[in-house]
Amino acid sequence: MKIKISKEKLQKVLDNHQDSMIGLSRKLGKNDAFISQSFTRYGGEVDDVIANLICLLYDVQLADIKADTANKTDTQKAFAILREENKKNTEKIMAVQEDIMHLLEKILTKINANTLQIERIKQEAIVSHTDPVHEAKIFLKTMLENGRMNAMTIQTKAEMAGITLANLTKAKQELGVQTDMTGSGRNQKVFWYL
């Protein structure tokens, strides 16, 4: 079994006995660098037989030369807590990223739908601009969307909008606009409705 020795504690024991690491290595029957190498190569770990022999040579307890492992245990616990917190934080971040991806999908779907609507409106505008009857249809639908309206008022507004009477008449026929008359003679009024 290996025991980790504290270099500082061992040096204190050696100083109290006016000895050195080389002297300890020789007393253990090892080469002069044995104790020094145990710290440089193995972090102060030695066989339990060597540790007990050091205690006998200098009349000290194992605790007087043994490295404190409480700090290592505390550090390991702290790291374990940090790892657990990092795991939880990572899970939260992943959940938020998943929510963001879901929202982005919704946004992209909306944008795609809006793009299609814009394209339809654009096509309608192109057709309307190139087809005067289509433009007249849109005008008539707008005028009659709230119910019947005086035919003279419609014709006057159409003329002001640059729509000819011929195109307005074609649009009226294509849309199936109905006519309603009231009164007679000079009091006669004509109404259009869809």
Question: Could you explain the architecture of this structure?
Answer:
A three-stranded antiparallel beta sheet has the order 3-5-4. A two-stranded antiparallel ribbon has the order 1-2. It folds into three domains: 66 residues, lambda repressor-like DNA-binding domains (434 Repressor (Amino-terminal Domain)); 62 residues; 63 residues, Arc Repressor Mutant, subunit A (Orthogonal Bundle). It contains eight helices and five strands. With 194 residues, the protein is mainly α. The chain is rod-shaped, with a radius of gyration of 49 Å. The longest helix is centred in the middle third of the chain and has 61 residues. The mean pLDDT is 87. Helix content is 68%, strand content 9%.
